[in-house]
Amino acid sequence: MTTALPDRLSIDPDSPHYDEEVLGQDIGVIFNGKEKTNVEEYCVSEGWIKVQAGKSRDRHGNPLKIKLKGTVEPYVKDASVESTDD
C-alpha cells in the first residue's frame, strides 16, 4: 500500500489539513537534512514546518507554534528497517 503523502498535513484534528487515514501510518519528516520528531504540521510546496514553542500556550490553551522554513521531505517509515536486532 504505497500512497503518496499529501503536500500539507497537520496532527491537529481542528485543522482542515488533518487526515486520520494518513496519520495512521508511521510518518517521518526530514527537515533540512535532519529527521524531526516534533513536527505538528508541514507543507512541502511552501517549504515550512510548524513545531511547538516550548510550553507556551495561547489564550485558548492550545500550544503556540513556530514556523520554520527550509527543505521538507515527508516519508513513511518502514517497520522492517527499524526492527533489525543483531
From TrEMBL:
It comes from the Bacteria. Pfam families: DUF3297. This is DUF3297 family protein. It comes from Fulvimarina endophytica.
